[in-house]
Design brief:
alpha+beta, six-stranded mixed sheet
Length: 146
Amino acid sequence: MNHRGRCRSRKAGKTFLFGFLIFAVMIAWNGVGASERYGMPSEEEAHRNGDTGTGGTAEQVAWVKSLRTQEDRLFVNGEPFVLKHQTRFENERGARIGLEDIPLGARIEVQYCTGSRLEESGYGPEVKILTRIRLVQPPPGKKPVR
């Protein structure tokens, strides 16, 4: 009699262990595998963070006291911005101009985005990535850039 009860407890223990292993494998399979929509889990997380609106775009207007470039950075009045190849420099009418065409003393509108999304993953969330500078008003006594 004692032998039968012991056999049942072993059988129940093996069934429980087998069920637990199946459950653990199912959970691990869903969490570790690559997503067809976004790729690997780290990419999916980056997309999720980018979609939730961490960061955004902002504009500010300033008088130019100093402009200098250093590698991939543009310093406007000492404030650093990251320069990308998509950065656009415009005159008052919206036509493209060069950075050297913006004179000291001019009033400019700076548009930038912040936040770290997948395509900007090399930069942190606090970095300002420059998207556009528009010359709003040339300095007094200077002709507008054509």
